[in-house]
Amino acid sequence: MLGAYYVISRARQYVGMNGVPAPLSVGALNDYLAAYGEQYARDEFDEVIFALDDEFRDRWAEKNKPVEK
């Protein structure tokens, strides 16, 4: 599933002046599954991919937190 997450995250959109990573969309997962097929139960697949994405975005936010003066 890590490989799937890598491929799916290539479709990520970034928003705002700081280029904040937007959450992955269900459409991006659907596009991946249409191209590569389902190897896992869909509910488990979605849960893992979205959990990995949440972790990525949490780490990004922590790393890019504004400096307090």
Summarize the structure in short:
This protein is mainly alpha-helical.
Tell me what you see in this structure.
By secondary structure, the chain is mainly α. The chain has one domain (2-63). 59% of the residues lie in helices and 6% in strands. It has 3 helices and 2 strands. It has a two-stranded antiparallel sheet with strand order 1-2. Helix 1 packs across helix 2. The radius of gyration is 14 Å and the shape is elongated. The N and C termini lie far apart (41 Å).
Counting H and I runs of at least 4 residues, what is the number of helices? 3
**How many domain regions?**
1
Give the ordered list of helices and strands.
HEEHH
**Beta-strand residue percentage:** 5-15%
Radius of gyration of CA atoms, rounded to a whole number: 14 Å
The overall pLDDT average reads 94
Calculate the terminal CA-CA distance, rounded to whole Å: 41 Å
